[in-house]
Structure formats: structure tokens, C-alpha cells
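Query protein
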Amino acid sequence: MELTKVLENRRSVKSYEQYHLDRETIYNLLDKAALSPSAWNLQQWKVIVVDTDESKEKLYHAANKQIKIKEASATFIILGDLNAHETIGDVADDWIEHEHIPAEKREGLIETVNRFFESETNKRDEAVRGASLFAMSLMLVSEDAGYATCPMIGFDKQSVIDAFNIEDNFIPAMLMTIGKGEMTNERASRLPASSFAKFE
């Protein structure tokens, strides 16, 4: 499907059919979404895939008992990694191997990244930003593959952390259901670009 059609067709679907989404398909969707951009290619996103009845039950209670958690084939808990910058040495080596930077630039790159992430604000902003870019890509590749999704912020962050033993360096950015379903209501109106864009 061409990108414009994907954007036009994507809707936040809140009611799902009984449908089994196999893990190979899920991995394929996640691999495509991982082409998302991230600062210094740190790829701050991590994902917990909730697709068993037991895990759905836990997430259902942590997400204000929203029934779509149980109905959907799976729900992604999309996390941002506050410590993703600690992989910059591996990123630098990969860039050198692919001739993106010369080897003599390695230490300077590592120093620049580590200095930027001394700020707790930068850590949090980049974790959420990277996870959100990944999430949008995941919604689009899922739509392109014929699956419905719905991003969710209606959950108790600490309950999700506790229920799934999420480590301190990960921030739950959002949940996202996926499965088979459709939205039949007319799309809500969107503001025109002229109302939110400013040229200078």
C-alpha cells in the first residue's frame, strides 16, 4: 500500500475480532518498525509483547480494565531506555565498519554522546522520543500489513512496571493493541496545516 493510503486508512481501532497473530509475524512487524530514526542510532525502544491470557489479564488490570487489552491479538508495551547511550561504543564500531566515520573519530563520538546524556532531562526526552518514533512506525507497518492498532495512554505506569518487572531504566511510553478489526465511524476532523504551521 502506498504511504498516503496507509496514513489515510490508519485509525485507532478499539474493538477486535478473535484472531491469532503468530510470533513470526509480530517479529516481522517489529523488525520493520525498527527502521525508525533515533539520535546517534541508539534505538532507545524496547518492547514487551503481551499475547498470553495470563499476561493480558495482568495488563488489563493495569490499564483501567479496558476490554481491548483482552480482545486484541496482542498488546505492545513500548518502553524508552534511559541508558541506551551506554551502547554508543557498539554503535561507533558499527559506523566504522560501515565506513560512516573514520576510526579516529570513535572516541570523540563517544565523549560527545556521554556528555549529552549527563543531563537527566536529555535522557528522558530521548527515551520517550525514540520510543514514540518507533511506535508510530509500528502503527504504520501494521496498517500496511492489514492489522488494526490503537495507541493507549490510559494505564497506570507503576502498575505496569510492577506487573511486568520492568527495570528502573525503562519508561513505559505507551501501550499499543494490535489485531483484526475496523473502525466504521467517520474520521474525526483534522486541523488544516494553515492553523498550526508558521513560516519564518
